[in-house]
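Quick one: sequence plus flavin mononucleotide SMILES, need structure tokens.
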Amino acid sequence: MSHAQYLRDLLRPLGVYDLVIIGTPVWAGRCSAPVRSFLSQYGEEMRKTAYVITRSSEVRYEEVFDQMDMYVRAPRVSAVTIRPNTVGSTFWRDEFLTSIRDGGKEKADNAG
Ligand SMILES: Cc1cc2nc3c(=O)[nH]c(=O)nc-3n(C[C@H](O)[C@H](O)[C@H](O)COP(=O)(O)O)c2cc1C
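Reply:
Sure thing.
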């Protein structure tokens, strides 16, 4: 069973959700292969998406949001990148959640 199929089997039909928040690490400047596969197969089902991206370095992550948008029906409503254990990562996580609750706006896109 593929990673994408495993994730899909955990869920109800994705179209029933008002918002799907998708998390992925950055791998070689791109979203991770399992998440890319998942988006490729099911991206069109999701009505609204937001992204949480984790990374270990300062570089090579800006294109990940746009890469993910290519697979979904509508562009993301919000996104955040987080470097774990850096000063500010908790702040940006909370900013992201606030922006989602406010209806989605990409005001948090850089932590650490
Ligand atoms: C194969 C591989 C490629 C990676 N490439 C990048 C990269 O291009 N940019 C980056 O910031 N982090 C990169 N990382 C680091 C991961 O994004 C990071 O480990 C992940 O966000 C999760 O953090 P954690 O290791 O604390 O669990 C890479 C990790 C792996 C395993």
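Residues 89-101 form the longest helix (13 residues). Strands lie at 20-27, 30-31, 49-54, 78-82.
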